[in-house]
TrEMBL record, chain B:
Short name of one Pfam family: ABC_tran
Stretches that traverse the bilayer: none
InterPro entries, alphabetized: AAA+_ATPase, ABC_transp_ATP-bind, ABC_transporter-like_ATP-bd, ABC_transporter-like_CS, Oligopep_ABC_C, P-loop_NTPase
Species for this entry: Labedella endophytica
Domain of life: Bacteria
CDD domains in the record: ABC_NikE_OppD_transporters (cd03257)
Residues covered by region (Disordered): 268-294
Record keywords: ATP-binding, Nucleotide-binding, Transport
PANTHER family recorded: D,D-DIPEPTIDE TRANSPORT ATP-BINDING PROTEIN DDPF-RELATED, TRANSPORT ATP-BINDING PROTEIN
Protein name as it appears in the record: ABC transporter ATP-binding protein
Residue ranges constituting the ABC transporter domain according to the UniProt record: 8-258, 300-541
């Protein structure tokens, strides 16, 4: 069995010195992020468990109290508890983030599939369209959608979703093209498999596997964009405990009540950060698997 | 040896990565004297490159290097500080790596890359920019680059592979180091270009340079080396003069390496020794006792095939008027250098591309001319094995998944897994690999799985495009033996494409030589190799590095 | 040519999007349904802006006037859009250009600082980049104001037109982009430092600093350079928020107020200007890329 002795060498001694990112175990950042994501999930589905107070309960006497043991994040101009409002706001902020990402991805998927399988004309049309859409900065195209639909949380969600679609479309198109020209798709053709079977069983599963990581990253960005719109008064409107709207109404009191700005903002940053960390970890794992 | 002792002296070198967990070099000792050429031969993973780089203190990030002695030009490399190391690098030892396209900075002009050592080592002519220009042109001229004043101003991607490699050598010898470390200096190059680079290295050695030559290729080594060191899995297993090593050395591994070189070994003689029991079949039995009866007409034939890519001024003719025919149990070898059109020819035969003119017929029926829909049911008759095994399999599938996907759809579901096991056995792989992902297998194992997949469909023709070019010699030998054996047992027709003349000669019954899209010569393999008629074939054969003792008939006719 | 097509397509897209806006455009021109304009006034406006013509004709007229650089006049401000834009563009351009510059400097600094040192430095830098790129403009701006204006009184909270008034807006815009650029740059710098040509350079006796300056940085800059046109668009988007917070006159604020009152000619104008800037920047970055990377110069795209 000389042959397998040489051939069956399972480890290539030259491989191991790969860049440290390649074999990094789950780092503390990812653990923290997953923990925060769990907290957010709880805040979405059972906000009463972690913040039992009523987010709309007004207490004029307690207005503008700084963070303390009774009010962890302080209170706002009407004496409402900021912590409670931040927790209860997670739901609407995240729903907007997820829905916007879903809208963006689905639109992008349609564009990508049309580009790759629509023949030369399909690709030309989608290619040009995406190129043109890139000339519109994301916030600008979101504002255009708002112009048509009028301000409001639903409009903001659609706006953010559509404005992120061109970026996703480009990634999906590249991914589809790479997989379509790969050796294993050619091998499937050579075995006499039909185009439909190859598309469904080979191309799509492989081309779309990076999307999970991409979507996770996208949710974080979408939360930021959506809260930006709320902040500008174009998304969720102030009495609602949505993070961006809370920040917008807090601006007036910045000099006197910093906690009104700091805590909702920290929630947005923490959400984006954990989405990024989890997304990158997923991406790294996907790359290693491939 | 000079009185001062050897130029390079290594005793008990150990290199490990991952804080000592992965040891890639263990206890290697060697020395190179002034004017001597020492070669390290080994397959991938043998630790030969890391050994060579350790000499310059460049073993890599995260490498732990220890040695009883590691001295270059009297300087202890292990204890030397950064400044002293920099004086050694380029000053006492220059490095030439494989593939100058990536080893020269693609964003810098040749002049900058070649001139840098002059500046860094304050050598004569390195002081000012204009002095450097003159010195660089002299250097380029010395390594045989025509029109140096033009080439100096160009970027690496504007030069051909051979010129690029020469420029890389020029940058390595710019500061006149006494030792030149050449790590696979000719591996990515075509045969004719490779011969020129080897001559250049020989000239440098004759001019007094010491050479440390690293190669996987015994043929390359045989031209230049005074002494040969054989490494395997991080250790030196054998060493001696070039002659004794090429004759087989003392260690069985050296013998296996020499034996694995197929050049000049008659058809049917196993290259891997001892033959693996799984394919232990009567050797050199070519009488066809086990061969399936041949059909009266060729299984696959091409008639006046032509394919051009692009149009107008950009048009490149990939294949022009190719005729061929291969019968059952027969192998047609196709040789040519890169860009000769051999891969396009393969794609035409596989009907992955449509010819502009001409026709391919499969088993006597039209193949290239019919619609893909009509072709699909007959695709199982033609299998394909390509060079690149890393992208050949669905990354989401296991070995079993890959093989089952390739089985004819009428295979009973319950029989599929056992059929996959049998297919693996056919290519001498064990059933324990069934649930592994192909990406976790070695290159040789992957190529065997690729062959098993091709067999799963029950083909009668296999188009093999550089099937062993990415594999180590001993691994390749096993795969070639396997292919030979399968053909004998199943009466397969092979179209065997390779740039490696030795491999083609060993595998083929007939051979076609391609040059710039044209089949310039075709005929029985021994006729073409012993008495080539076309000037291109002669040139090609003259440039093959040959082990001493192999037949040199090819060169005699000139 | 390509640039022209992008511009034309943008104009077309904006034209049709603005036609999707619900409500009678003529009424919108008079200040919306709330303005209670008389039927005759609406009719006059309808004729003046050509809203009574078929859509195709309107489109043709719009494109023709665009060719003459005539952007029409604002519904709300009763001024030619061109005048409004000319007033608004310089402020935003200064802001965006400075922010991009600062972002590049931050990114290069961060990248180099990490590539020199230890794993810990790389870890810290990595975290900094992610945090920076995750910071929403509006929050960063309010925090900066709270710290540097309210608490320390170093910089004014409202843009005054003085150079000190520019500091906080520029920093606000630059930090997230610097985070993005640094992530891209660090990846490609590491790739360049691991490339065979880096080994060749070191084997010639090149110093670690020389390896970065003469070889790796150029490779690292290439992908970031390609991102710059996109980054500039991102900055213009960010300008909407930043200009609002710092009360700076500029494109962003103009756009925001135009959106809220549905002042369509102004919206169209701003969008076209930003598309124009994007197109010009793409041409510039392409040209710079060709200068830095000889491979693209020969092979074309």
């Amino acid at each position: 069995m000389t042959m397998t002795a040489v051939d069956g060498r399972s480890v290539d001694p030259l491989r191991p010195p790969a860049p440290p990112t390649g074999r990094r175990r789950v780092g503390p950042g990812v653990v923290l992020s997953v923990g925060f994501a769990a907290f957010l999930a709880l805040a979405c589905f059972a906000p009463g468990l972690i913040a039992p107070q009523d987010p709309a309960a007004v207490a004029p006497l307690d207005a503008f109290s700084p963070p303390s043991f009774s009010h962890w994040f302080g209170t706002d101009e009407s004496g409402r508890d900021v912590y409670t409002r931040v927790v209860h706001g997670a739901g609407s902020s995240l729903v907007i983030g997820f829905a916007a990402t879903a809208i963006g991805l689905v639109t992008a998927l349609l564009l990508g599939v049309l580009a790759v399988f629509g023949g030369r004309i399909g690709d030309a049309i989608v290619g040009r369209a995406v190129e043109v859409l890139f000339a519109f900065p994301a916030l600008l195209s979101a504002l255009l959608v708002i112009l048509v639909l009028g301000p409001g949380p639903v409009a903001a969600t659609i706006a953010v979703g559509l404005s992120t679609a061109p970026g996703y479309a480009r990634i999906i198109r590249t991914s589809l093209l790479t997989v379509r020209s790969s050796g294993y798709v050619e091998a499937a053709r050579l075995l006499g498999h039909g185009p439909a079977r190859i598309l469904v069983r080979t191309i799509l599963p492989n081309a779309l596997s990076p999307l999970l990581a991409l979507a996770t990253l996208g949710v974080g960005q979408a939360v930021v964009w959506a809260s930006s719109l709320s902040f500008l008064g174009l998304g969720a409107q102030p009495p609602a405990p949505e993070w961006g709207a809370m920040l917008a109404s807090a601006r007036v009191y910045l000099t006197t009540a910093w906690w009104l700005t700091v805590f909702p903002g920290l929630m947005i940053v923490a959400t984006t950060l954990s989405a990024t960390a989890i997304g990158r970890a997923l991406d790294a794992r996907g790359r290693r698997a491939r | 040896m000079t009185a001062a002792g050897p130029l390079l002296r290594i005793d008990g070198l150990d290199v490990s990565f991952d804080g000592g967990r992965t040891r890639v070099v263990r206890g290697v000792s060697l020395s190179v004297s002034e004017g001597e050429c020492v070669a390290i031969v080994g397959e991938s993973g043998s630790g030969k490159s890391v050994t060579a780089r350790s000499v310059l203190g460049l073993a890599g990030t995260g490498a732990t290097v220890t040695a009883d002695r590691l001295e270059l030009a009297g300087v202890d490399v292990l204890t030397a500080d950064e400044r002293a190391l920099r004086r050694l690098r380029g000053g006492e030892a220059g490095l030439v790596s494989q593939d100058a396209l990536v080893s020269l900075d693609p964003l810098r002009r040749i002049a900058a890359e070649v001139g840098d050592p002059l500046r860094l080592h304050r050598r004569a002519g390195g002081a000012t920019r204009s002095d450097r220009t003159i010195a660089v042109e002299e250097l380029l001229e010395r390594v045989g680059i025509p029109r140096p004043e033009l080439r100096a101003r160009q970027y690496p991607h504007e030069l051909s592979g051979g010129l690029r490699q020469r420029a890389l050598i020029a940058s390595a010898i710019a500061a006149s180091p006494r030792l030149l470390i050449a790590d696979e200096p000719t591996t990515a190059l075509d045969m004719t270009v490779q011969a020129g680079i080897l001559r250049l290295l020989g000239d440098l050695r004759d001019a007094g340079s010491s050479l440390l030559l690293i190669s996987h290729d015994l043929g390359v080594v045989s031209r230049l080396a005074d002494r040969v060191i054989v490494m395997r899995a991080g250790e030196v297993v054998d060493q001696g003069t070039a002659e004794t090593m090429l004759a087989g050395g003392r260690h069985p591994y050296t013998t296996a390496l020499v034996r694995a070189v197929p050049a000049g070994v008659p058809r049917g003689t196993p290259l891997s020794a001892p033959p693996s029991p799984a394919i232990a079949q009567p050797t050199s039995d070519r009488d066809g006792s086990t061969t399936v009866a041949t059909s009266p007409w060729p299984l696959i034939e091409a008639d006046g095939l032509a394919k051009t890519f692009g149009r107008g001024d950009d048009a490149t003719v990939a294949v022009r008027a190719a005729d061929l025919a291969v019968a059952a149990g027969e192998t047609l070898g196709i040789v040519g250098e890169s860009g000769s059109g051999k891969t396009t020819l393969a794609r035409l035969l596989l009907a992955l591309a449509t010819p502009d003119r001409g026709e391919v017929r499969l088993d006597g029926e039209p193949w290239s001319g019919v619609s893909e829909r009509r072709r699909r049911s007959r695709r199982r008759l033609v299998g394909s094995v390509a060079q690149d095994t890393s992208s050949a399999f669905d990354p989401r599938a296991s070995v079993a998944g890959v093989l089952i996907d390739a089985l004819p759809s009428e295979t009973v579901a319950s029989a599929r897994r056992s059929t996959a096991t049998r297919l693996l056995a056919d290519v001498a792989l064990g059933p324990e690999l069934l649930d592994r992902s192909p990406s976790t297998l070695s290159g040789g194992q992957r190529q065997r799985v690729a062959i098993a997949r091709a067999l799963a469909a029950g083909p009668r023709v296999l188009v093999l495009d550089e099937p062993v070019s990415a594999l180590d010699a001993t691994v390749a030998a096993g795969v070639l033996d396997l292919l030979d054996d399968l053909q004998r047992r199943r009466g397969l027709a092979y179209v065997f494409i390779s740039h490696d003349l030795g491999v083609v000669r060993h595998m083929s019954d007939r051979v076609a030589v391609m040059h710039e899209g044209e089949i310039v010569e075709t005929g029985p393999v021994e006729t073409v190799f012993r008495a080539p008629r076309h000037p291109y074939t002669r040139r090609l054969l003259a440039d093959v590095p040959r082990l001493p003792g192999q037949d040199g008939e090819a060169g005699q006719d000139g | 040519m390509r640039a022209f097509i992008v511009l034309w397509a943008s104009a077309t897209l904006v034209f049709f999007i603005t036609r999707l806006v619900p409500g009678d455009p003529a009424e919108a021109a008079l200040g919306g349904p709330g303005s209670q304009a008389s039927e005759e006034a609406v009719e006059a406006v309808r004729r003046q802006f050509g809203f009574d013509q078929p859509l195709v004709v309107q489109y043709g007229i719009a494109m023709l006037s665009l060719l003459r650089l005539d952007l029409g006049s604002s519904y709300a401000l009763r001024q030619p859009v061109a005048t409004i834009l000319l007033d608004a563009v310089p402020g935003t351009l200064v802001l965006a250009v400075l922010a991009l510059l600062v972002a590049w400097i931050l990114a290069i600094g961060l990248t180099l600082a990490q590539s020199q040192g230890s794993r810990i430095a790389a870890r810290i830098g990595d975290t900094l980049e992610i945090v920076a790129s995750a910071l929403p403009h509006f929050w960063l701006a309010t925090i900066l104001i709270a710290v540097f204006s309210t608490a320390l009184s170093w910089f004014p909270p409202v843009s005054t037109g003085t150079p000190t008034g520019l500091v906080l807006p520029v920093v606000t815009l630059a930090v997230p982009i610097a985070g993005f650029l640094a992530q891209v740059m660090r990846g490609s710098l590491q790739e360049a430092l691991d490339a065979p040509f880096a080994t060749s350079a070191l084997a010639r006796g090149e110093t670690r600093v020389g390896l970065r300056v003469r070889h790796a940085l150029r490779h690292a800059a290439l992908p970031a350079l390609g991102l710059s046109a996109w980054a500039f668009g991102y900055l213009i988007g960010g300008a909407v928020v930043v200009e609002t917070i710092f009360a700076r006159p500029g494109l962003g604020r103009t756009l925001l107020s135009a959106i809220t009152v549905r002042d369509i000619p102004v919206v169209t104008g701003v969008v076209l200007v930003s598309a124009l800037v994007y197109v010009i920047l793409t041409l510039v970055t392409d040209a710079v890329t060709r200068l830095v990377d000889p491979r693209t110069a020969v092979g074309g795209r």
